[in-house]
Amino acid sequence: MSMIRDLRAVVRPSRPSLRKDTSTYDATRDPATPSAVVDCAVYRDGVRVQTPQPLTPHEAMRLVRRDGDFVWIGLHEPTDAEFAGIASEFGLHPLAVEDAVQAHQRPKLERYDDSLFTVFKTIHYVEHDRLTATSEVVETGEVMCFTGRDFFITVRHGGQGSLRALRHRLQDDPELLAKGPSAVLHAIADHVVDGYIAVADAVQVDIDDVETEVFSPGRKGTPRGTDASRIYQLKREVLEFKRAVAPLLRPMQLLSERPMRLIDPDIQKYFRDVADHLARVQEQVIGFDELLNSILQANLAQASVAQNEDMRKITAWAAIIAVPTMVCGVYGMNFEYMPELHWKYGYPVIMGITVVICLGIHRTLKRNGWL
């Protein structure tokens, strides 16, 4: 068990490695390179077999000579033609191959003959100064994993989710890699879920900012509200996050609970930890969705209240203006015999009465909160 004891430290380092990368593989596909293979290596007793030049998948399989040896191949957005040879070499099921090449799959775990096919959705938080109606909050990618007795193949889609640092950390712990492909599968699962946790914390900050803005006091102590389109955009991004997290919980539970021939028993128990963390993230994301619903409804209610308040003010001023309008209308009639028309003090008296009535109405409406 000593080789498993530091498993968490391997896949969750306390600080990033500062050493210079001198490996032969890169995190992304080089457009000038015709091959989608970004790394291909053979591991014997947990140690990478050194070769004078990069291996092809066929050459790597020829170096697998005994139990415990396995090949780890990393690909980035391969085409049908590029993946066909690898699929034939390792006997991958056509349905899984089609899913791996086409991408846009939901997270899942499937068993095909002597291999496991696992799909992970990677989530990356997009930094932004201020949330707008068009802000992209989360960016998704995909990592497909083929786990066999003596091979492990990763197919990555999207610009995020690089596995370079993870491979380095695993290579620094030969005792862990000696457990075979299932140790790599667990490390990737844990790496992906840790990414979910970090994104959830960042999204929580965005939601708190929106909530504060919606309920912060504006003029006269009333909530000022915010643009509903911003809340709706954040809700859309949370929904995309939810689609990545929710379907993955059942596969992680299966890997942790159901004995599988391709999963080392010492590694299997650590999938429980991944499933627990994933369940916590799922609860957070569901809470985000419900909270945003409440914030959106509250914001719409505030907009409705603000409109009603504006209408009350308009109505109040219309009532005040109606008094001089009525007086002017009465004395604008062209009757010859009107009592006050020839009275010396008629004009100032009528104007004074009009002003007093208007001031009385204004005071009454203001006292009742209409102005």
Q: Gap between N and C termini, in Å?
A: 76 Å
Q: Main sheet, how many strands, which sense, barrel?
A: 7 strands, mixed
Strand content: 5-15%
User: Element order, helices and strands?
Assistant: HHEEHEHHEEEEHHHHHHHH
Q: Structural class of the secondary elements?
A: alpha+beta
Strand order of the largest sheet: 2-1-3-7-6-5-4
* Number of strand segments: 7
Put simply, the count of helices is 13
Spans of at least 5 consecutive residues whose pLDDT stays below 50 are: 1-5, 13-34
Query: Average pLDDT value?
Result: 83
Query: What would you call the shape?
Result: rod-shaped
Helix content: 40-55%
Radius of gyration: 34 Å
Q: How would you portray this structure in words?
A:
There is one protein chain. By secondary structure, this protein is an alpha+beta fold. The chain is 53% helix and 13% strand. It contains 13 helices and 7 strands. A 7-stranded mixed β-sheet has the order 2-1-3-7-6-5-4, with helices on both faces. Helix 9 packs antiparallel against helix 12, helix 10 runs antiparallel to helix 12 and helix 12 packs antiparallel against helix 13. The longest helix is centred in the C-terminal third of the chain and has 62 residues. The N terminus is likely disordered.
Short description:
The protein is 53% helix and 13% strand. By secondary structure, it is α+β, with helices and mostly antiparallel strands.
Key features of this structure:
371 residues, rod-shaped, disordered N terminus, 13 helices, seven-stranded mixed sheet, single chain, alpha+beta
